[in-house]
Amino acid sequence: MPQEARSSVIGEMIFKPRAAYNLGAARYDDWAWQHFWRRNEQPVVLKHLLSRRGVTLDIGCGTGYFLEALHSKNRGCVGMDISEGMLAVARQRLGKKFPLVQGDACALPFIDQSFSSIMCARVLTHINDPERAVEEISRVAARKALVAISDIDPEHRYVATKVPSDEGSLEIETFKHEPEFLLRLTKAKGFKLLERINFRADTMDWVPPLPQLRSIDRTGSRAVSYVLILSRR
Question: Which long-range contacts (CB under 8 A, 24 or more apart) does 64-71 make?
Fold first, then answer.
């Protein structure tokens, strides 16, 4: 099929996460939003994860950028992602430093109480009902484990997650979750909130210059994303 025709078809489709990230894996690190997460979200989450000893699980590890930062601090890590394509890129970046596992956030392939810290960055945005994912996080979290969950704020005006690929922009099935809803789910599973960080233009360390990421509200009246830092009781 000609390139133009394939791009046209892709532009009309809403992909499931696994298929989309397989198609977009090679271009994922070039995505403009990656710079946003690395400049704003990553330092906050790293600070908390590095405060706990033990092994960290990165649910939805993608191309391994976050794992690379953790490993540089001599942390034991396990990466998991639903996309074989993303894991292949992560393996190229990380070599054989630690395990990379294909799996689903709603059915984690790990034994109970395996991890002293867990991160789940913008994974729940692809899950319609995140209760099962929260159950699984609770199952594999050790006693007093630290958990960092981030997601796109419903106030941010977007309909679908769009990532680049060699065949055009891909739209991925996306759901919005209020942070209060996730806090209720995690509280019911025995987690307490340590810190909540809301990323708005007036609170972020780095706001991309125009014309990058035009969907960000630069007045600060609407949040872009949030991070919930939780501790297992």
Answer: 64/89, 64/90, 64/91, 64/93, 64/94, 64/100, 65/29, 65/34, 65/38, 65/93, 66/42, 66/119, 66/121, 67/94, 67/98, 68/93, 68/94, 69/42, 70/46, 71/97, 71/98
What b-and-e string marks burial along 63-84, b requiring 16 or more CB atoms within 10 Å of the CB?
Answer: bbbbbbbbbeeebebbbbbbbe
Measure the CA–CA gap between 73 and 151, rounded to whole angstroms: 25
Domain coordinates of the chain in residue numbers?
Answer: 3-232
Q: Does the pTM exceed 0.90?
A: yes
Tell me if residue 195 falls in helix, strand or coil: strand
Tokens at residue 9, please?
């078809």
Tokens coding 193 = 């909130």
Report pLDDT for 3: 36
Closest CA to 229 of 183, 176, 184: 183
pLDDT over 60 (residue 8): no
Domain at 3-232: CATH code = 3.40.50.150
- Give ∠ CA 4-27-21 in degrees, rounded to 5: 90
The three-point CA angle 100-42-170 to 5° equals 65
